[in-house]
Amino acid sequence: MTVYLSLKACLSQPTLLDACFTFCTATTTYLVKLVANDDADGAVAEAIAAVAPSVLRYIPELLTENVHDFMLFLRHFKDQLFEVKTSSRF
User: How far is CA 37 from CA 44, 51, 60, in A?
Assistant: First the structure.
């Protein structure tokens, strides 16, 4: 139990969580740009092909699994990162 609590305390540091969240966001943005073919001159919806680009063959599944697992970890321990802050003008 001591090991679990020590790991939880270490992994729950706000600076580490923010840095990892930024890294995961950058990774997913890169993957979306690969799929959307960012070099296309049309809108993103038009740029997404019916068949996935061949570039995605070289992206390991481990990358997407790690991003997914980290997002689940964040959802469990730091839920406020996913909240969208809106300003109300009313």
Answer: 8, 12, 19
Could you tell me the pTM of the whole model?
A: 0.61
Residue with tokens 């580490």, as numbered in its chain: 16
pLDDT of amino acid 64: 86
**What pLDDT digit, counting tens, does each position of 48-65 carry?**
556 667 777 888 888 889
Q: Which of 2, 8, 4 is nearest to 73 (CA)?
A: 8
